[in-house]
Amino acid sequence: MYPTRILRASRPEKPNITGFDIKKLIAATGQPKYDPWERAEAWRYTGIFSRWNRFKNSLPGLGIATVAFAAYCTYEHFFLKPDHHHDDKGHGEAHH
Description:
Blueprint: H1 3-10, H2 22-28, H3 38-41, H4 51-56, H5 62-79
Keywords: Electron transport, Membrane, Mitochondrion, Mitochondrion inner membrane, Respiratory chain, Transmembrane, Transmembrane helix, Transport
Pfam family, one: NDUF_B12
GO biological process, one term: mitochondrial respiratory chain complex I assembly
């Protein structure tokens, strides 16, 4: 516990001159037993607006692009020959 809370807890609480009691307000407010707007808000979290559908539709071409890129990299690695025009003498000599 913080020292300032200990000091505040030891002092007697002053009455509010307006008569407003914050503790009574906090006790009175809470989750209502029936929310009249609950049905109006429900559409935001169901169907095409559910969390999974929003995530899935955020990057629509990522799956196809990933598969196409992997296929191209595989094709390039196995079927295309490296295009190097070096002989076995090494890189020390000048190229003609």
